[in-house]
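Good morning,

Attaching, inline, the backbone tokens for the sequence recovery test we're adding to the shared suite. The designed sequence is right after.
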């Protein structure tokens, strides 16, 4: 991916790196209302599936800590 794509991912709230959904996270959410598979998330965010899992686990840890679970 180019630096322009990376910049758009970081600055435009609705932008994803998947042309088939018009580069729109809103369109992707409509297609996968219950949650997208890891490989689609990875493609959309221009990261690896392993990085998706790492980020997911970090988010879960923060939420658990905030909830006192």
């Amino acid at each position: 991916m180019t630096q322009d794509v990376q910049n758009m991912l970081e600055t435009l709230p609705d932008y994803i790196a998947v042309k088939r959904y018009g580069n729109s996270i809103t369109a992707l959410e409509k297609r996968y209302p219950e949650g997208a598979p890891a490989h689609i998330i990875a493609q959309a965010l221009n990261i690896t599936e392993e990085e998706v899992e790492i980020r997911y686990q970090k988010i879960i840890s923060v939420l658990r800590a905030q909830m006192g679970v």
